[in-house]
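Design a sequence for this backbone.
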């Protein structure tokens, strides 16, 4: 069913050496958000890429008015890239995804339908197509996080989440790397914010892998 919510959304996409997929990622984001949000922006954080990602983003900026590009002079890490994008976001709802084109971004609207004040909505991947070892390690890590922190989330690292911007300001990540998802959700849980998990389908195998 088509999503009927019309929210104002900032979509943050961190990117490091993603020249093979960044055009596709931005075009898919534009197609998914266009006409289905009251207002939106696509914020790509180029985290010091040296493979032509920056040049492709410059070219895209002239074609896609909703695209905003933030550049780090050097590679600072996934968490730092997300933090830069989160700080720059202007809309009341801030979503993020990776540049690997793993998701059909229309799945984002399943999360937006669940948005309400004081609630963080996170995806839970179903139909994962990555190798069995990666899935097994992810399963083990999620069990460990639940055991250690009591976090009621089954897929901590799913790269499709929506935060209300007032909450996000209190959760800006300090971890430079991939621990960022765990860090932010554990802090949100300890601060008493509600976390709602929504199943999202994987569209395709990771592009470029």
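Sequence:
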């Amino acid at each position: 069913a088509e999503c009927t919510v019309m929210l104002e959304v900032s979509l943050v996409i961190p990117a490091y050496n993603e020249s093979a997929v960044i055009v596709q990622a931005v075009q898919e984001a534009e197609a998914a958000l266009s006409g289905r949000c009251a207002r939106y922006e696509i914020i790509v954080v180029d985290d010091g890429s040296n493979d032509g990602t920056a040049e492709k983003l410059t070219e895209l900026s002239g074609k896609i008015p909703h695209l905003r590009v933030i550049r780090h002079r050097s590679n600072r890490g996934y968490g730092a890239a997300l933090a830069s994008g989160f700080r720059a976001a202007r809309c009341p709802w801030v979503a993020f995804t990776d540049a690997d084109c793993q998701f059909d971004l229309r799945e984002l609207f399943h999360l937006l339908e669940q948005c309400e004040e004081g609630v963080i909505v996170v995806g839970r991947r179903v139909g994962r197509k990555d190798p069995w070892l990666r899935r097994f390690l992810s399963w083990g890590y999620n069990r460990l996080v639940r055991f250690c922190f009591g976090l009621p989330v089954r897929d901590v690292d799913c790269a499709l989440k929506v935060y209300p911007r007032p909450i996000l300001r209190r959760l800006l990540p300090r971890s430079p790397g991939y621990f960022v998802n765990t860090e932010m959700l554990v802090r949100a849980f300890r601060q008493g914010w509600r976390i709602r998990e929504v199943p999202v389908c994987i569209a395709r195998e990771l592009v470029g892998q």
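The two ends are 31 Å apart (CA to CA).
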